[in-house]
Amino acid sequence: MRYITSRCALRHIGKSLRRNIRIVVVKIRGSGEMKASAGRDQSWNGRSLRIIPARPADCAKKIADVIARRAYRISERRDFTPGHEIEDWRRAESEVVNPASGGWTMGSENIIVTTTASLFSEGTIEIYVEPCRLAILGKQCASKERSMQANGQNDRQEREIVRILDLPVEVDPSKVTARFNHCMLEINLAKAPSNRNVISEIKAA
């Protein structure tokens, strides 16, 4: 993962992101985005779902962009004092990216992942699906932000967060549905054909 290496780079990233964020969103929406499963379970307390099949490199870039925005704000608070770029990046990464809490249920042809949705505030929750990993992106819930502000981590903007889950088997990113079950998020992923074949062979034996 690339590190921010200079004060100038931090300023450039911030300006570039603010200028191009609308274009990036449009491109993402047009690149294989999937709809979540239909029905009333697709909204909960002002939250909605968007499923995006992704290559590992594309997902890594998306996460790096989120970290870069956070690192920029951290550096901005100290007026871009030089010499702290790597420190800012590492702090941003620790604040933004964490493992997803929850678990999964394994079927013969699919895997159902369950994780909490209450971490995320109102708006769209994006689910990036790789063959072996999920990345769930959204804005942090206001109650969590207030807790951080009480601990001296004040921020003027809503904080973006990423929750990562490494999958126990390979899945087909094009065959995914998701829904809310009250405050929980359920993601149904079809196993890749190779994994389904292995299970069939084991049963036959």
Shape: globular
Distance between the termini: 44 Å
Q: Enumerate the strands of the largest sheet in spatial order, edge to edge or round the barrel.
A: 1-2-6-7-8-3
Please state the CA-atom Rg, rounded to the nearest Å.
19 Å
H/E series, N to C? HEEHHEEEEEHEEEH
Largest sheet: 6 strands, mixed
Q: Spans of 5+ residues with little confidence (pLDDT < 50)?
A: 1-31, 198-205
Please count the beta strands (DSSP E, at least 2 residues each): 10
Q: Can you count the helices? A: 5
Average pLDDT for all residues: 79
Which structural class is indicated by helix and strand composition? alpha+beta
Helix fraction?
25-40%
Strand portion: 25-35%
Describe the structure.
With 205 residues, the chain is α+β, with helices and mostly antiparallel strands. A hairpin with a 2-residue loop joins strand 1 and strand 2 (47-53). The strands form two sheets. A six-stranded mixed β-sheet has the order 1-2-6-7-8-3. A four-stranded antiparallel β-sheet has the order 4-5-10-9. The longest helix has 23 residues, at 7-29. Mean pLDDT is 79; it is low at 1-31 and 198-205. The chain contains five helices and ten strands. The termini are far apart.
What is the topological layout?
Blueprint: H1 7-29, E1 43-44, E2 47-53, H2 56-77, H3 85-96, E3 97-99, E4 102-106, E5 110-116, E6 123-129, E7 133-139, H4 142-150, E8 160-166, E9 171-181, E10 184-191, H5 193-204
Parallel strand pairs: 2-6, 3-8
Antiparallel strand pairs: 1-2, 4-5, 5-10, 6-7, 7-8, 9-10
Helix pairs in contact: 1-2, 2-3
